């Protein structure tokens, strides 16, 4: 029994190492693509909303009003606008609360991976990112579809810590 737990643990650790190595490799590839194409690219003319909200009532979280003071020019390789929204739900055996926001960020960014990372059981934490590449396109609420592959990786990490 002990041996099989050790075997499971070490294969999990191996898998995690492999995944992070792959991720690093992809970053390398992406960076080299960025470097080689930077010279060929036109000037960065992108503008994005840039702000941080810690309550849902913040004007950053709710961009319906005139928010020209939150508009910023993007520089260098930061050629995408993004919205990252952190929220959570809590569940009892009978019910789940509505999604509550606890932070939201809008910014220019170089790398943007759309989707959600979800962790937890009773209390579920959601980190959702959405990406776009036209000026002032990052006005949305930042809700996104869950990427289940990411969930699996997160579960594996939690498992490997717990074991
Ligand atoms: C936007 O991104 C820059 C560079 O990564 C960072 O320094 C800055 O704090 C971010 N702004 C907000 C409002 O999160
Ligand atoms: C938004 O506010 C700016 C100044 O803060 C003003 O110049 C602009 O006309 C306003 N836009 C709208 C649509 O009200
Ligand atoms: C959940 O529902 C059951 C059956 O209706 C009830 O007995 C129980 O008290 C409820 N639990 C909570 C935490 O509300």
Provide keyphrases for this structure.
alpha+beta; 163 residues; 2 domains; 32% helix; CD59; binds 2-acetamido-2-deoxy-beta-D-glucopyranose
Architecture blueprint of SSEs:
Blueprint: H1 2-38, E1 47-49, E2 51-53, E3 71-73, E4 80-90, E5 100-109, E6 115-119, E7 123-132, H2 148-162
Antiparallel strand pairs: 1-3, 2-5, 4-5, 4-7, 6-7
Helix pairs in contact: 1-2
The structure holds 2-acetamido-2-deoxy-beta-D-glucopyranose (NAG) (3 copies).
One 2-acetamido-2-deoxy-beta-D-glucopyranose (NAG) binds next to strand 2 and strand 5.
Signal peptide: 1-24
InterPro entries: Snake_toxin-like_sf (IPR045860)
Keywords: Signal
Strand order, biggest sheet?
2-5-4-7-6
In total, how many beta strands? 7
**What letter string, H or E per element, gives the SSE order?**
HEEEEEEEH
- Based on the structure given, which CATH architecture of the largest domain is correct? Ribbon
Radius of gyration from the CA trace?
19 Å
What is the level 1 CATH name of the largest domain?
Mainly Beta
H/I helix tally: 2
Q: Kindly state the mean pLDDT as a whole number? A: 78
Chain oligomer state: single chain
Q: Kindly estimate the percentage of residues that lie in beta strands according to DSSP.
A: 25-35%
Name of the CATH homologous superfamily of the largest domain? CD59
């Amino acid at each position: 029994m002990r041996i099989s737990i050790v075997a499971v643990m070490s294969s999990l650790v191996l898998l995690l190492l492999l995944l992070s190595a792959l991720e690093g490799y992809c970053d390398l590839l992406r960076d080299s693509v960025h470097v080689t194409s930077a010279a060929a690219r036109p000037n960065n003319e992108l503008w994005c909303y840039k702000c941080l909200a810690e309550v849902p009532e913040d004007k950053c979280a709710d961009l319906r009003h005139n928010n020209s003071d939150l508009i910023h020019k993007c520089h260098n390789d930061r050629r995408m606008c993004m919205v990252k929204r952190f929220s959570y739900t809590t569940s009892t055996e009978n019910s789940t609360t509505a999604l509550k926001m606890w932070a939201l960020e809008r910014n220019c960014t170089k790398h943007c991976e759309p989707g959600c990372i979800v962790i937890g059981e009773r209390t579920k934490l959601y980190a959702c990112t959405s990406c776009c590449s036209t000026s002032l396109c990052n006005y949305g609420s930042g809700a996104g579809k869950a990427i289940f592959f990411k969930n699996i990786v997160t579960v594996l990490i939690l498992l490997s810590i717990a074991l």
